[in-house]
Design a protein that fits this description.
The chain has 11 helices and no strands. It is an all-alpha fold. The chain is globular. The N and C termini lie far apart (75 Å).
């Protein structure tokens, strides 16, 4: 009963359309402007960076809180090798928060693209997905700073998470077990599989952006790098 309640609460929490609510406070229907998406990127483009950052933080928190709360309640928080059945149920809570954001019933099941909510949910799945999520965030920032495409940064960060999820438990296990590689090699396949499915879903939601990237028409964010000053 409690697992089912957490899954439902996770979905409802993830479904809160913060982008839509923030824009309405400014007298704007975000679905009629920019890319018409309710996610943080479009909110930032239409309303300004600070509002986009607020939307990003709220979208991450609405997934982080129920995921972390469920881990704490179940006693799985902090376990390197949790029982398979319980970790699978915890992953269902994590997935529910992201699916609630992408398929929000409050906006006719047309929500955001799941980047910020995936980050928040994975940060809450401590430690097996927390460190991969932080690694993916670093990749996102580097790619965004280099090429200024949010969509490209989002897709590459999403792809990196299942790869990092394969490596992180191994590193944690080696630290815990010293130099005993055999006993330290821990691969939580449900966690890797779930992160892989979420990565595919995020990329699928960016399919129109990928088409624009290939055509060279995708919008960039931020000012272009300053041109070098001409010599004397």
């Amino acid at each position: 009963m409690m697992w089912g309640a957490f899954i439902l609460v996770g979905f409802l929490s993830g479904s809160i359309p913060f982008g839509l609510l923030i824009a309405r406070l400014k007298g704007i229907d975000i679905r009629q402007h920019g890319s018409k998406n309710i996610g943080a990127t479009n909110v930032g483009r239409v309303l300004g960076r600070k509002w986009g950052m607020l939307c990003l933080v709220l979208d991450a928190l609405k997934a982080f809180i129920p995921t972390a709360a469920c881990g704490w309640w179940s006693g799985l928080w902090g376990q390197v090798s949790p029982p398979t059945t319980e970790s699978f149920l915890w992953l269902m809570v994590l997935a529910a928060t992201v699916l609630g954001h992408i398929f929000s019933p409050w906006v006719a099941f047309k929500g955001g693209k799941g980047v910020a909510s995936s980050l928040g949910a994975m940060l809450g799945f401590f430690p097996l997905l927390t460190f991969p999520a932080l690694g993916a965030l670093a990749i996102f920032i580097v790619v965004l700073k280099t090429w200024r495409y949010v969509s490209l940064a989002s897709c590459l960060a999403a792809v990196s998470i299942p790869i990092l999820a394969l490596l992180t438990p191994t590193a944690i296990g080696l630290v815990r077990n010293g130099n005993d590689f055999k006993s330290g090699f821990i691969v939580p396949w449900p966690v890797v599989a779930c992160s892989g499915v979420l990565a595919v879903l995020v990329i699928y939601r960016h399919r129109s952006n990928i088409a624009r990237l290939r055509a060279g028409t995708e919008s960039r964010v931020g000012p272009p790098p300053s041109a070098p000053k001409p010599g004397p």
